[in-house]
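Hello Y.,

Per our agreement to keep a running log of every chain we model this quarter, I'm adding this entry. I've kept the format consistent with earlier entries: sequence first, then predicted structure.
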Amino acid sequence: MKISFVTANLNSGGAERVLSLLANEFDKHGYEVEIVFLKERVVFYSVNQSIKIVVADEECKSKSMWKKMIWLRRHISTTQPDVVIPFRVSVYTTTLLSLLGKSVPVISSERIDPHVPDPIWDVLRRLLLPFTTHLVVQTSYIKSYYPKFIQKKTSVILNPVNEEVFKTPSDISCLQKENRIISVARLAPQKNQKMMIKAFAELVSEYPDWQLVIYGEGPIREELESLVENLGLSGRVLLPGRTEHVIDELRKSKIFCFSSDYEGLSNAMIEAFCVGLPIVSTCVSGTEDMLVNGENGFIIPINDQRAMVHSLKALLSDERLRIEMGERNRKKADLFSMDGIFSQWEKLITTIVKDEN
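Predicted structure for the entry above:
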């Protein structure tokens, strides 16, 4: 069976990470896999050598999206994959429009919470999702956004986690941990790291041997650096940029913190969950699928600095609570194993291809 994944590129985002993991797994199981980039050739995540990468910019020698859509239609007609799987709303709407009238099945993959108002994407979803063969979303909350006729052809499939997390020792107390709160996310307004930094600022005097380390890169780096300096937190709040060793950094930490205003399903939070960290997170999509408030983490209202201070303080002041919450999370790590997630995707694809034929 031949599968064509479609994405903008393989930059260091969560959707790109999931796509690369799935592509590698299908390739490993003997499927013929290609990844089509609708934008530039950027490959942050490793991809098996046997997977073919095709870049629209290079093939049609143009940045024009209309020309790339025409090229994509011709490319799919020529290569004749059994199924096309575009990731992200911008990519699946472009793909669906490009392939209107074609018989190839398309499984669109939503990677963000569509409840967040966005007039352009809302209209495009309404216009083009009726033409998708199937839709895959990350949480039941996301599925609830769509009209009933779309929900009938929608599956909820969680994100797979990097298999490295399963190499975490069963006794996490033996890990060499540091007194630090870790966060991993793009430095962007959506992620609201400003609120997290301000919350931590209220705790530094009471917990002088703790640090907040925020991994990621993005457009608000300078704003965050200025905030850290203005709050006198240099050396206490670190912004080291991207890391290719997220799981190692999670293992060194004692608390995972997430402050997004909206989300699909955070891959970093899943990895923190599986490694065995207690979690403090805003109530974004996916959080309530993973956490029971007060049992394996704390769920706080969006943009509620006071609630974040309160929740972090509860964990900072109680080592036993941190360990118990983390252990509850680690024991549920199999929910996100690649074997389980791959099986769900494989069953879905096999069923759809069979039904279409």
